[in-house]
Amino acid sequence: MKAKAREIADSSLEWLDGTGDHSGIILSSRVRLARNLKGHAFPWRAGKEELEISAEKVGAVIRREDSLRSFRLFGIDDLEPLAKGVLIEKHLISPALSKGGPGRGAAVDSHGIVSIMINEEDHVRIQAILGGLKIHEAYRIARQMDELLEALDYAFDSRCGYLTSCPTNVGTGLRASVMIHLPALTHLGRLGKLAVGCGKVGLTVRGMFGEGSDSPGALYQVSNQVTLGQSEDELVEKVSGAALGIVRQEQAARSKIFSERGPRLEDKVWRAWGLLSFSRVMEAREALELLSLVRMGSGMGILPSVRVGTMNALLMDIQKAHIQARSSGELSPEELGAKRSEILRKALAPVEDES
Amino acid sequence: MKCEKCGIREAEVHIRHQKGKETDDFHFCRQCAEDMAKDGLLPDVSFEISLDSFPWGLFSWHGSAPSSPDADASPADQRVCSHCGLDHSSFRKTGKFGCPDCFTAFQDDLAPLFRKIHGSDIHRGTRPQNACGDETSPEDLESLRKELREAVEKEEYERAAIIRDRIREIGECYEGEG
Fold first, then answer.
1. Which H or E run includes A346?
2. Cβ–Cβ below 8 Å for B99 and A41
3. Phi/psi of residue A227, each to 5°?
4. Is B38 at the interface with chain A, CB within 8 A?
5. What pLDDT score was predicted for residue A330?
6. Which among A94, A179, A228, B86 could bridge B98 via Cys, Cβ 3.0 to 4.6 Å?
């Protein structure tokens, strides 16, 4: 059965609900585990036949496990292009995997918490995403999946740990990360310093959209750099603890800006809300930047409170593939911008829009 | 030194291509290197990590600077993975393992490589339930003990503690199996 783009766009993505701790600032917590099968060349080095065999082995375990019955298993080549785009925007598959080819696949659970990528850079990549600061819980979920998939006979070495295609993932194969919203720190020009500080303790800071400090919407990803030599619990705790520290810094930065330039900040935030509520055509980048201001303004009590869940959902709903998937026919850039505006107005406008 | 491609920006990426005894050196700026990687002309490496350290820098772990003409003057490394056929120079070039058996084929490179990337070369995390003991031979234990002595001699106490824990774990594992 072919998965339709619209159906995937409408399917649940639990973290969007915005219920976890500090979910105003920490949008999501993600843990991924890289695993490979003993006796098989890694995907980049494997031929068609071998890729298909390893995919079949992984698929068989997923189909066999009762507890994984809610998972939807699909081959990338069986997806329509728009469906791939939606899955990428939801971070359930990577752009690299979306290129498809023999044996490339994924399995996604019905809540949108767990996704298992098959034959991406490694044979198996297990990922769990939850809302707010919940890295420990995300790790527990990923580890549960890992234990079920252990039946695959993983490539493991007592000294090097889990063997991976890239030496940067060897050992635990674990990457723990948070998606974090840092508009005040960005505004004060503190991101560079933060990145350097994180680097010193083995963490990486990266823009979610684009690179470095020029990340539209002030959304960043903080993750562990090393995967070998520390236990999973240590790595998870390190990212979690750092994320909490960064939340405190962001809160302090917001207070500082408010105390120094209160009226100016209020004006900026209200204008952002005004633009989102009344515009008729909007580019994605502008929307991300304005949503960032509204998110901060709402969190600081400048604006009437907007549900975190509403703002999270908008981050998905205003992206290109999501808009396309819910429209009939190909949209021109102009139509796309108009549609985006309409989505934003419906969600945020203070009064029922009459148009 | 200017980039060989654009001739404008400063070269930051230095590549040595080795074929038999002949070597060719290339020097590119970051942007041209990224463009070429996108076009598949250079190995597809992650540019998220500082270019100074990865992957070109990774492969100078024997201590000689990459620009030193003698660095690769020794006869070409003949090691080849018996399972996937990846040869040592391709491993160095791509910075990627071809299959799990490559870890055995290029074993001598692993400790310095992993220490450079991770600051450690010993796994301390979870292990699959079926992995206990079956891949750790008594020789491994012996080499771990040797490393422990060396680490203590060099006053690398943090590393020594990790190795000691590992030896204990393996010991328990064997006892557990009887």
1. helix A333-348
2. yes
3. -125, -5
4. no
5. 86
6. B86
